Amino acid sequence: MAELTLLEAINDCFHVELGRDPDVMILGEDVGRAGGVFRATAGLRDRFGPDRCFDTPLAEAGIMGAAVGLCMAGWRPVCEMQYDAFSYPSLDQLITHVGRYRWRTGGKMRFPITVRMPYGGGVRAPELHDDSPEAYYVHTPGVKVAIPSTPADAKGLLAAAIRSDDPVVLFEPKLHYRTMRGEVPEGEHVVELGKARLAREGTDVSLIAYGSMVLLCEQVADELAGECSCEVLDVRTLKPLDEDALLATAAKTGRVVVVQEAPRTAGYGAELVAVLAEKAMLDLRGPVLRVTGYDVPYPYWQIEDAYMPSVQRVANAARKLLEY
User: Fold this and answer.
1) C-alpha triplet 186, 192, 194: angle, nearest 5°
2) Is 176 a catalytic residue?
3) pTM of the predicted structure, to 2 decimals
4) What is the pLDDT of residues 73-100, one digit of tens each?
5) Which of 97, 129, 176, 189 is catalytic?
C-alpha cells in the first residue's frame, strides 16, 4: 500500500474512478486549470480533458443545478463546493431537486450526484470558511452523507459515493488534508456506505465521533490511558447510520460521549443520543454526554480553539461518566 495524505488519497480516487467510468465528470470553482483550491483535482484536466474536469462560475446554486441536468443526461457528476459555508446557496437545488427526483419518478430515474466539500476549522481561515454544516444535509430526505477521518476512507468513501445511484454529500476534514498520512490501497478501493469503523477498542467509555473529531477522540484515549480504557467509534457514514455498531459499543462499555464540531442545538450528535436513548437505555450506566461546538457563528481564528472541542473537554466528560 502507498502512504498518502488525505488529500493525495482523494486525488488518487479521482484518477481511478475517472479512468474506470467515462460517465464520471468533475465540476466546480477552480477545479480544472488550477486543480482546486486545495489541489484535490490536480492533474485531472490534463489527463482526462476539459470536458470531464471543468471550471464553473462562482455560483454554487448553478453548480448544483447543472449537476441535476447532467444526471438526467446520463452523467455521474462530482461537484466541488470550495468551502463548507459556500454551499448554502445550493441548498435550494439540493433539497427541492436532488433529494426528490428519484422519489418523484418512482425510482425510474437514478440520481448519481456526488457533492464534496471541505469542512471544519483549525486552519485559521476567514469567515465562511470554517463551518460544520452536516446537519442540514443529513436532514434532507433522499441524500446520503459521509465524512472520512483517514486517508484510506477518504478514497474509499469517495469511490462509493461516485458509484452510488443516489446523491451523496461527502464532507472532508480540511484540517487533516495535509497533516494526516496513512496507508491507502492502490487501484480500486471502495468503503461501503452505512458502515461505521471501530477506530480503537476499549472497555470503559465509548467516544463516538466522525471526521476530524475521531483523531481528537484517539488523543483523548491516549490521555486517559492511565485512568480508563476508551473505545473510539468512527461513525463514518452519517446517513445511513450504522445503528448496530452504535448499539454494540454502548452495550460493551455502558458509557458514551458523543463529540461533534458543529453547534450543539439540533446537531447530528443529538440524533446519535436519541438512538441510544431509544434502543440502548438498559445498557447504559449513565447519561449520554455531548461535547460540541457552541451555538454561535464559527468564530474568527484568534478564538477558534476555544470553540472547537478539545482533548480536555472530552476527557472531562469521560471522567464525569466514570463517576456514575
Assistant:
1) 150
2) no
3) 0.97
4) 999 999 999 999 999 999 999 999 999 9
5) 129
